[in-house]
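Q: MerR family transcriptional regulator, please. Structure only.
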Amino acid sequence: MPTYSPGEIADKTGFSLDTLRYYERIGLLDDIARTPGGRRIFDDDDIAWLGILRCLRDTGMPIAQMRRYADLTRDERTVRERVELLEEHDREIGRRLAELAAQREHIRGKIRYYRSLDTSGEGD
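A: Structure for MerR family transcriptional regulator:
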């Protein structure tokens, strides 16, 4: 399996080096391999895990919930709890999407209103 330096992982995942170190410090990343000189080495499994973390973060999951999820993934007997945590997050995403859709409609209403006022002809 190929290995990657922290810089390569930062490029591949979009996470900054500071974020990678932070995630390791708080337990979102564990068992990161190291060279004999102590430098971190990442592999494809780490890239896949970071992809999950990126998805959770980008969809607004709080760090505390991300840590809970990471803890749950370390125990094969916690599948039901993982499902429950992800279902809860999915419901929150749905709630936020509905809220955004309503806000978007409000903005579109304003656009229609301002276009109706535009008499300069530039709106055509």
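A: Brief note, in case it's useful. The CA atoms of residues 13 and 50 lie 7 Å apart.
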